[in-house]
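User: ok so my PI wants both of these folded by tonight, can you help

Assistant: No problem, let's get them done. Here's the first:
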Amino acid sequence: MTQMICIDIYPSLSAYDVVRIIQIALVKNILSVFLRSLSVPSVFHKITTFLPFDKRSLFTTQNFMQYVESVTDLIGNTPLIKLNRVIGETKGLVLAKLESQNPGGSVKDRIGIRMLEAAEREGKIRPGGLIVEPTSGNTGIGICLATIRKGYRCLFVMTDKASVERVRYLKALGADILIVSSAAKPSSPEYYYNTAKRLASEIPNAIMFDQYDNPANPDAHYYGTAPEMWEQTDGKITHFICGLGTGGTVTGNARYLREKNSEIKVITADPVGSSLKTYKDTGRLVEALPYLIEGVGQERIPGNLQFKYVDEVVNVSDEEAFTMARRLAREEGIFCGGSSGMNVVVAAQKAKELKEGDVMVVIICDTGERYLTKHHSDEWLQEKGFLDTDKITLQVILEMKAHANGEASPIIAASPEMTVRDSLILMNKKGFSQLPVMDEEKSVGSLRDNRLMARVLEDRDLLEKPVSEVMEKGFPVVSHNTDVSDATQLLTDARAILVEDYGIVTGIVTRHDLVRVL
């Protein structure tokens, strides 16, 4: 006979407490659990989403709408998605854990609420208190989401390496931001961690959670992320890949997974320039070199980073990470940051070694919306020397011109009916040495100021003649998808190229424009 139990859920009973009760019930073969919620439907949401998919149908509800109490109730239970094109040939299965699906858009949402609740339980924070935290942005967002309903204030210390999107996001959530130099060494009082620690000690009723050494950081993954992965893979996970930063993600997940299966391989990614790989391999802490990937790598060893759980650390360059992040967007539909690209670079390398039946899970740390002005920007990549010129199209060049000018400029052209005098005035006003001649958005000819001036000097009556009588052959018109190598060939003969987008001329590219890019 099917057994049934009834649970009254009160606000004082957490979702995780109820999950424990339910798990015990399942172990005792109680096949159906009836949940009677008293004004706390969000708890039921968290309970059902926390459970394995094949168990959720066993749970029924009575007379309440389905909604959550706050945005923090949506943290966790992020999906797994198979990676296909970016991985290449492999005998195993490679899955991405989409932490970008958390409400704040990153894996750090998990630790924000966990650290706040721990501080409250331990009496370390009082009503109206100020949270001061060093962050590259994502942890700050997670903390903000956790504090919004509780009335705490936030001050985040960030380096000038942080993307403008992260800074603006935090300000939009109501946080105060202090930007310090990323060039400061860990021994300097100006180092962002040391600055936050000093401010937390000097400002009354302030606290620094210290994500680097706070045990609530790895606990968020030990009790959340890792059990999810174990259940989602039906206990078949054999390889786990993540980046190294505060150490919370690798330590919490690896500790849980190793308790389940001591044979699981834990492989981590570290930016070229970070000190962590060298420390793991040699035991020496060397001085870090500059790198551009945000939110990962270190020049100190955080208390939460326990290398005993790490089998291997793989270095990944900025260019490799950013290229992979862009590939993930274009080939898998996964819009993510550079640290996620870094993780997947390692996953793609290690996937070649997988055997039949192996299951690899790699962390997608955050959303790419935080990096629209960085590695998801062709202009930024070109500025940093990472843009592959062989793959640049004329559309990219037009976007770079618009970025340099502050806006996209309309096509400046002469019409066939315009007088030569007016065309010369137009070129002089705009500082152009040449112009296309356009008739109803179609290219019909071109003008060069030096040739026009030479002819006018011989015959001043030409000034009142229409452009159609003196114009030269029109510039080549090519698709916006034309690559730079083909455009270079055209510009050996032509002085400019008109770029067409779905039958409409949208821009002009000159030899000078190409030289600036190449």
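One down. Here's the second:
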Amino acid sequence: MNNLLRSSLIMFAMLWCFTYVTAQSSVDESTVNELLEAGETSVFAGDLLLDEQFGSADAWEVYQDDDISFKVAKGVYRMVYVGDGYTWGLNDEVHSDVIMRVETTQNSDYDNNSYGVMCRADTENNSAGYYFRISGDGYYTISMSDGEETIALVEWTESKVINQGQESNELVAVCVEDYLALYVNGELLAETNDDTFSEGFAGFSVGAYDDGNVDISFDNLLIWEGSEGSAPQIDPQVDPQGSGNTAVILQDFGGDSEDAIKELEQLGVIPSGSVFIFGEDYAFFTGQGNWFQPIASNQARKNIVLAGELTFTVGNTDEFEICSLTSRIITNSRGDATTYVDMGLLNDGSVVIIDRFSETEDLNFGVSPFTVDLDDPHHMLMVMVDDVANVYVDGLLAISNFTVAERAGSYGIALTGRGSDARCEGRDIWAYQVPSATAAGECVVSSGRAVNKRTGPGTNFDQAGQLAAGTEATVIGQATGADGLVWWQLEDENWVREDVVNAVGDCSSVPIVKR
């Protein structure tokens, strides 16, 4: 093994190559599902359908006349209405059962108003649908419209939970089967049942009365697929190989990457806030030689989850052969992989991790205490954070707490074959970036998606760019905003809100900033 060397010879091009970022939020479905436990009807949030930060001018419906305006501006969706009535702005995706969460801020000082979200807006007559609204003077309602008249399903009712006037409120609306519910600032205010509409658009609505005016900003919209029943739970299990460790058997190792990451987060293997790096459908090598295919070579990362299905056909049982997924690759001027970390299968069925951390020093490697049947494909998954790596095969923890040299690098798939029949096939290969640990006494925030930064602790302050997905930022101060939530001040003196980022480290001792 010490003489293992890989050249950068590409045997076959990949068939389908794609790179994208999935929508994720630290206000995840588990947080919402805890909230939904207060309802009389059991429902839960499943797959995230939309994560809208309003960073693009065409993110939502746009309209303008003398009395009505709605558009994306400064990172929010802003709706203005003057008169006696209401208006609405929609997206263009038809949904059925959904759970919606959005942040609202009233910019105008006229409180005889209404504002909130819509679900199942009729595709033919889109003023028709369900409305979940609050008012500037502290009332709430759930209603439906058939396009001609509005019918109250829950009458306007006063609540001290609602922040009145030019303040911010968080709304969660539930439209699952015939069950409708409204939560405001983490409290269940109303629930009812109606089966008039079964699908339609999502939207926002604002209204004013007695010839008044209303100006509302909507931000950080999340829409999940909703279902009746209880959210599925993942139970930690015990390693059957006898280690006594819990939470080492993964159930979603062979499914979608999003499900695998979600499970790792729920089991506490990784923190929340991971971000997708790449996905590769299929790659293979065959024959005698050293074959290496780079993947996402411009996406070097240090802390990752790397996974894929490997099928290894042995070519020679007498000499060293390996089929592997490779990470932390650093190449020289010729493109040769000079340092790397391999996770793979040996030709005797062992699971192996190899850290070639130096061109001049001997490499380090670890081998599983059991072997696998190479007649079958095997799902490989490695979690590598800082100087520690853990390798799973078919959901089982095979190599635990293996020490690796810290460095960032790219990825690939490789075969060392010593017989003409040697073949390494990789399917559904993917990687996520994982948030790292923080220095002692430091508070660091990150997010798996881009989030808006503000010039002050509130959505009423101007947008000041974004904290990019996967980027970590050190916190230097904190303040409680008018919305009652903590806002973190970053090193660049801009602000992000606590519930849209993942904060790790010694955050309780961050100094309070008086404004």
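The helical segments are 29-36, 257-266. The longest strand covers residues 200-228. Good luck tonight!
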